[in-house]
Specification:
The chain is an alpha+beta fold. It has helices at 8-34, 39-42, 46-63, 70-81, 104-113, 141-149, 235-274, 289-337, 342-373, 385-396, 417-434, 483-486, 491-501; strands at residues 84-89, 93-96, 186-191, 196-203, 216-222, 381-384, 403-406, 412-415, 440-447, 450-456, 505-510, 516-523. The strands form three sheets. A five-stranded antiparallel beta sheet has the order 2-1-5-4-3, covered by helices on one side.
Length: 525
Amino acid sequence: MRARSLNLYSRILLWLLVNVLVLGASFWLVLQWQFREGMQGALGGVIGDRLQTVGREMHARLASSQRSEWDGILREFSERHGVHALLMTIPTRQISGKRVDLPEKLQQLLADMHPELPRRPPGVAPRQERPGHPPPQPESRDELNALLFGEDFFPPAGRPHAPPLESSDGPRFDDLSNAMPVKLGTFMLPLGTPPIYYTGIRLPLVPSWSRREGPLIFMIITDRITAGGLFFDVTPWLLGLFGAMAMSALLWLPFVSGITRSVRANMHATEQIARGHFDVRVPENRGDELGRLSHAVNQMAAQLDGIVRGQKRFLGDIAHELCSPMARMEMSLGILEDRLTDSDALRLADAREELRQMSSLVHELLAFSRSTLASATKPMEDIPLLSLIDEAICMEAIPPQKLRLDVPADVVVRCIPDLLRRAVGNILRNACLHAPESTIEISASRHGDFVLLLMADHGPGVPEDSLPRLFEPFYRVDTSRDRQTGGSGLGLAIVKTCIETCAGQISVRANEPKGLIFEMQLPRA
């Protein structure tokens, strides 16, 4: 049994999908290459740009609200994106948002990012501002540390002071304006298994946050690297991928449909040629290889049609030419029969029987040839199927008790009556010859644009491997049969030719538990 496979259009679309998957894999490799230096390397790309956008949006909201509203802003942000958001400053002071315990590696990262702000020793409280007095401006790094963490944070006596802020390296608080810096102080740190991603965005100072309180860091904690689309949204990429596939399918549709239409036409033509319909033709409206294939199929069909028609016409001509000499021979044998003795008369009877069988074979050859050429000379007619079957039964002289008819009287078929009558008569004759004790069942039903005619018997049947060859000319199941039991092998070949000339189809299958079923599809009137 031939395995089922995809059609050409599905194969091309599947190949397109494979192509897109290869592109997607290449994109994934690019992302892996971008992450080769860890999360900080990725922050230089799409994720870093997105974090800066998130930081600008949060900075704008904090700058336009009071500090008492920050907890609500962070809570709403956390619920909307499915993350944990908080505001903090160096080293581990959490300003707003739900309190969490920050890992030591995160604290170390924050300290390394701000070398100008050493950690406050345990027990040292930050210096408080005096009401009504402006905050003092630091002149050096030591004074800045004193402002942040208290007077006790000054270095011991005799230790050189740190250089002034104007000449220090690295980020400086007095250089931060209200404009969001580009990728300033942005980091992402995965910790644990499975990883928890700690993402920090250093924000510019806001009106309600004084410079002396330290840098303002917006911290986002999530267990997904994309943060549900907040950092990196894969949905647009997927939509773009499938959108590209849909657009490609639409763009390829005219091209592929033209190819598949031509392939289907050639496939249909070759199937018809394999069934013996050599009058089929394929449109030759293409200038490529498929157009050349269509031209070759048409040429092959025309040549086969000429060869087969020539052979059948030759058979008909030979059979017609043999009829007259055999008729004269039979007449001569009849004249000789009256003048011979009894022993010679027996030999003459044998010769006469052989001549009669030759005459029958010639007439079958003539019928086989005419059944093919009849479509060019005889028109199709609308005939009630039941009346045509009754005529065939009368011609074959089959008794009614041997038949079981189930053919509606209003079923009308379009056919050449003589050919269909001959086909039905040949099947009835074969059933009576090979299944003499069996009842012949004939039924008909409508199916769309055709009528299904079934003729079944319960005789011995034929082997399974012989069923496909029953309609071949001169084929007999048992080659040892003589002329009385095996016939000439042209009966079912004539049946097939008659049915196909009527624009129908015929097939045979085994009946259960034994016998044969002939199935004919005839055009419906």
